[in-house]
Design brief:
This protein is of the alpha+beta class. Strands 1-2-3-4 form a 4-stranded antiparallel sheet, covered by helices on one side. Strands 5-6-7-8 form a 4-stranded antiparallel sheet. It contains 4 helices and 8 strands. The chain is globular. It has one domain.
Length: 152
């Protein structure tokens, strides 16, 4: 009986010390809003950051477009190099005339640890792109992307 109890305690301690989950929240005072797409009710998407000594960490929270899920998904990344501006340029590039006309224009890239795909979608009366990860997807218009990245 003692051996079973000792084994159980040792296994439990081993599992506790090897947990590899780190939770990030945006409720701390050091997260600052960079840009947001606000609709009636909850925000459609928000981009927040924490300034560090050598770079900044960004957290992109997005409301999943699939109505059956009713949930947010996120992408966390650092600003190493020009990550933020490169990400913005990829999204906004879809709205350039030659790219919008190119039916095969799709972009795949890794942002932080997430694999991301971006492609055009047909929405009546408006140009829209879909940003998709394994966690979710969101439809974005050009004006919404500019708001999210705090561009005029």
């Amino acid at each position: 009986m003692k051996k079973n109890l000792i084994t159980f305690i040792l296994c439990w301690l081993f599992l506790q010390t090897n947990a590899q989950i780190t939770e990030y929240t945006t409720t701390k005072k050091n997260w600052q809003l960079y840009g947001q797409i606000k609709t009636i009710g909850p925000a459609k998407a928000s981009l927040e950051y924490i300034a560090n000594s050598h770079d900044s960490s960004f957290l992109l929270m997005m409301y999943d477009d699939r109505p059956e899920l009713k949930t947010y998904f996120s992408i966390r990344f650092n600003s190493n190099g020009s990550t933020l501006s490169s990400f913005y340029n990829i999204l906004i590039s879809f709205f350039e005339k030659e790219n919008w006309k190119n039916k095969d224009y799709v972009r795949f890239f890794k942002l932080g640890t997430e694999e991301v795909s971006v492609y055009k979608t047909a929405v009546i009366g408006t140009k829209t792109i879909i940003l998709k990860t394994d966690k979710g997807r969101i439809a974005l218009r050009k004006g919404e992307i500019k708001k999210l990245f705090n561009k005029k």
